[in-house]
Amino acid sequence: MCGIVGYVGSKPVIDILLNGLSKLEYRGYDSAGVAVNSEGKIKIYKAEGKLQNLKELLETHKAEILDTTAGIGHIRWATHGLPNTINAHPHTCNCGKLAIVHNGIIENYKELKKDLLAKGCEFKSETDTEVVAHLIANEYGKYNDLPKAVREAAKKLKGAYALCVMHQDEPNILVGTRKNAPLIVALGQGENYLASDSPAIIQYTKRVIYLDDDQFAVLTPSSVLITDIEGRQIDRKEEILPWEPVAMSKLGYKHFMLKEIHEQPDVIRNVLSGKLPDINKPIVLDEVKLTKDEIKNLKRIEIIACGTSLHAAMVAKYILEAFTNIPVDVEASSEYIYRKTVTDANTLVIGISQSGETSDTITAIRQAKSVGSHVLIITNRPDSIMAREAHSLIPVNAGIEVSVAATKSFNAQLIALYLFAMYIAEIKESFDLEKIKDLKHEMLLLPQKIETILSHKEDIMKCARAFASYKNFIYIARGINYPTALEGALKLKEISYINATGYPAGELKHGPIAMLDETMPVLAILMPGSIVYEKVLSNAEEAKARNAKMIALTSAHDAHLNDVFEYILRVPSVDEYLSPVITSVPLQLLAYYIAEFLGKDVDQPRNLAKSVTVE
């Protein structure tokens, strides 16, 4: 949530700030602003709404900021105070000499604000961030040293924050620090950058330093100094970003979401590459550091995740329990961290996050580590906080995902979880090894089957057009595709704002059936392979009897389906264990086309952020 860009160098700063912020729009935001050091004064420009509004504002002030070469920029997702210009970042102090941008939440801001008011500080906004600006300004008054002032102020802060600070009396210095929120330093030639995520700076440099909690970066055009909170220098290793700027291009697609849906065959190939060398050979997971004895002694697995990643975790429960005979608990990170949890050294804790920066999940895995559990992280960002906290890692290699609604990262997570379940089963010999060999063969065919779906989207588009005007939707399934129903409903509500809900099909008659009539479409996922196919079909017939509009998602060619369903979305046949990978794709497309027909902002839906870095 929110995005930070800072620059100090010799180039015009406004273009760099705006370009960097545009690359962070995928994170979600509701206002934008920049601060520059121009003609010996801090000048701040802010606008409510999209970044384009800020660009238009800056165009009217172009002459007065044309030659500025140091500044900070921010896109804000509101936590404290309304999403308006006053509450937008950057924020400043009473004298206006200091400017600050902030991601995260300051938990003790009320206490700090009370003290600052008593000292004569005047507040203009409703934000917790303005408290930090006044706090640093007070410390600056003592030391006349910006790095020192930021360090002293940070000692008084509680919560999560990434901060970027500038002062008019030190025009060629930026100071950044972080705690429980991401911030990176990017290194150039005669210029340096701060950013909350690498897309903001990837077109300028691939050389980065990842700050750890309570580390401080002092940037000038020609130098970068990393210190601890006492000002002692720390040597941090420079790293090279692993991806190219082209990842941020739509490559001819109308939206990033549609592009990312179409990337899924190659994403699956990437995840399998090197990990599934041959169906007759064991799965290779080099970054999983569990020993064979530790695996055999596992008594329990806990999977912690949020949102789409939570649905991937729910699929994994079915697979892991079937393949390994180990009990698996799945819980939303936001619930896990606020109750007493029972975990120990014989419990494997798996954290799943697309960004690797999800605040709740970070807190959860730290709690698990503190009592001796082995922590395995599955993430799309091997450079993230969670990856660095992990004992073991499975990177999913999906590439940067720009659209707020997760698509390719979901299936990449599923493939990683299937591989891990097979890996454990092969070591424990807890599942039919011939069946695993068959599943390996089917996994290698999944990209081709998804390509078949993507090349025959006409029925999905027709269905989307037919149901775009409905205000409510129900998705039903049983067994391993119940989480897929939840994920399909989530995709629809995220980007179209239609009230969509997923249910286990057997639960319809325990309450939700009361909602069914001709205004309520019901989408049923019916994948052959076990007795649940017939059960879901029976539940669909019950919904049909209540005049619900019926849609089937299936690989079956049962003639009886035509009597029950008005629309049938067919997918290639696949083993039921692997079916969520296949069934998720039409549901992503259905949500996409409904949202497009409704004229919604598909890639940046309202109120949502790509990376949720506050609890």
Q: What does this 3D model show about the protein?
A:
The mean pLDDT is 92. The chain is α/β, with parallel strands linked by helices. It is globular. Helix 8 (264-272) runs antiparallel to helix 15 and helix 10 (307-324) packs parallel to helix 14 (408-428). The chain contains 20 helices and 24 strands.
Summarize the structure.
The protein is of the alpha/beta class and 615 residues long. Helix content is 36%, strand content 23%. 53% of the residues are buried.
Give a quick set of tags describing it.
615 residues, alpha/beta, 8-stranded antiparallel beta sheet, 6-stranded antiparallel beta sheet, globular
Q: In which order are the strands of the major sheet placed?
A: 3-2-4-1-10-9-11-14
Helix share bin:
25-40%
Number of discrete helical segments: 20
User: Per DSSP, what share of the residues sits in E-state strands of 2 or more residues?
Assistant: 15-25%
Shape call: globular
The profile of the biggest β sheet is: 8 strands, antiparallel
Parts with pLDDT < 50 across at least 5 consecutive residues: none
Span from first to last CA? 11 Å
Integer average pLDDT: 92
Radius of gyration, taken over Cα atoms and rounded to an integer in Å? 26 Å
Oligomer: single chain
Count every beta strand, where a strand is a DSSP E run of 2 or more residues.
24
Structural class: alpha/beta
